[in-house]
Amino acid sequence: MTSLAPSAVLSGLPSRNDGGLWLAVIEASQGSRHKFKYEAAMAAFVLSGVLPAGLCFPHDFGFIPSTLGDDGDPLDVLVLADEPLPVGVIVLSRVVGVIEARQQAPGKRAERNDRLIAVAAASHRYVECAALADLSATMLGEIERFFVFYNQEKGTRFTPLSRRNAATAERLIRAGQRRFAARTSELE
């Protein structure tokens, strides 16, 4: 059974505010080897994994609350910010695109597990970044390779499929909100 813990506990937290920005909850800080996951039963972020020496998160990583992806978890988001953000912080973010991807764990069917790319709304460094095309192909390639290797370390295959614009990313978020609402109503 899929857990709704991160989004269910934060269900009072909207995914989007009136200014057209999306909220992101940070689970791994840029430059860190530590990955945390929110555990509702403990009402805390718990260390869920440590990357091998020499590998760290290239940017802050987290999820969009009150959404569900095809994998049953909240939608993943990589947030570009001026400096690393602490775990548990909620960041107003401007979504600039998405790396669409397929992920397959051993013995399981392949499923979509896209990576939204967003910019912290308060960022000075990325203030002019409004689209995925504003980021270098080198940066995007590094992000894709990070997720390929990160998943490979867990025995999972991660295959980037395409890079899409902000409009596609926002459609994915809205679909994730609908899945979350449907799952939440099923559980009531």
Shape estimate: globular
Strand content: 25-35%
What's the arrangement of strands in the largest beta sheet?
A: 1-4-5-8-6
Largest sheet: 5 strands, mixed, barrel
Helix content: 10-25%
Task: Domain count, please report it.
Answer: 1
What string, H for helix and E for strand, traces the elements in order? Answer: HEEEEEEEEHEH
The total count of strands amounts to 9
CATH architectural name? Alpha-Beta Complex
**What is the arithmetic mean of pLDDT?**
90
Distance between the termini: 16 Å
Using only C-alpha atoms, the radius of gyration works out to 15 Å
Reading off the top of the CATH hierarchy, the class is best stated as: Alpha Beta
CATH superfamily: Inorganic pyrophosphatase
Structural features, described:
The chain has 188 residues and is of the alpha+beta class. It has one domain: Inorganic Pyrophosphatase, CATH 3.90.80. The protein is 23% helix and 32% strand. The chain is built from three helices and nine strands. The chain has helices at residues 5-9, 137-153, 166-187, and strands at residues 22-28, 34-39, 44-50, 60-63, 76-80, 90-104, 111-112, 115-120, 157-165. The strands form two sheets. Strands 1-4-5-8-6 form a five-stranded mixed beta barrel. Strand 2 and strand 3 form a beta hairpin. It is globular and about 40 Å long. The two termini are 16 Å apart.
